[in-house]
Amino acid sequence: MTNQKESNAIIEIEDLDFYYNQTKALKNVSLDINKNEVFAFIGPSGCGKTTLLRVLNRMNDLIPKTRVVGKVQIEGHDIYDPNVDVVQLRKSVGTVFQKPNPFPISIFDNVAYGPKAHGIKNKKELMEIVEESLRQAALWDEVKDRLNDSATGLSGGQQQRLCIARVMAVKPEIILMDEPTSALDPIATLKVEELINELKQNYTVVIVTHNMEQAARVSDKTALFLNGSIIETNETNQLFTNPKEQETEDYITGKFG
Ligand SMILES: Nc1ncnc2c1ncn2[C@@H]1O[C@H](COP(=O)(O)OP(=O)(O)OP(=O)(O)O)[C@@H](O)[C@H]1O
């Protein structure tokens, strides 16, 4: 087992076990993720990638009978401390889901939704946030003349970039992406991948992907999961070209998974 410890970490996970009722879905996971890094979780179906992603903004709290053992720190704070404000946590750790899930309201209102919920009422300020977020999501030029149209009229790829803009509008530190392109065609996928490359200038991105080529294209570091454990964490190009563990080599050469 190879786990990595570094000092510039924005996310620090130490000896984490995660249970769904009696089932242990994550076992003794330790991992550091650095600021402004794109970090990919790969591994076969059911190995715990999504579970770990959801640990990072306490989305698993919504599932009854789940239990976290161990330490998860973000920016030096234990996010499982009972005093943590979970709404604030989810503001600073946003999520983009597998299927684009815009609200059935206008493009503008989708992006303004989060800032409004966090108390911003000034129209000019909201307009600035909406424009900036849509620009950052590489969608502004495509939608600037139809901001009042329903978001459901956008293509799947545009909807996913809108969901990314929606997350960015509340100015998170970290963006979690759970298979963000699996419902998209290759061109829309490419656009989202290009966007991920841009995002790391301002954000830390953690991405779950089934697609090893995608991990290789977009991420700086990768962790391979098997059966709830991390087998290897490494620089992405090292992990794919010169894996340290036999199981990594077997996985990336398609011997299982
Ligand atoms: N809500 C849940 N209740 C009970 N068990 C769950 C729940 N969600 C996931 N699990 C179990 O936890 C384990 C890890 O699942 P998880 O979804 O994290 O894997 P994954 O690597 O993301 O898989 P995939 O690539 O198929 O999405 C699996 O055995 C799964 O069946």
TrEMBL record:
The transmembrane segments are none
Localisation per UniProt entry: Cell inner membrane
Pfam families linked to this entry: ABC_tran
SMART domains, per database record: AAA (SM00382)
- Domain ABC transporter, by residue range, is 11-252
Q: Which GO terms describe its biological process?
A: phosphate ion transmembrane transport
- Give the superkingdom in one word: Bacteria
Tell me which UniProt keywords the record has, alphabetically. Answer: ATP-binding, Cell membrane, Membrane, Nucleotide-binding, Phosphate transport, Translocase, Transport
The membrane topology term of the UniProt record is: Peripheral membrane protein
GO cellular component terms given for this protein: plasma membrane
Role of this protein: Part of the ABC transporter complex PstSACB involved in phosphate import. Responsible for energy coupling to the transport system.
Q: What is this protein called?
A: Phosphate transport system ATP-binding protein
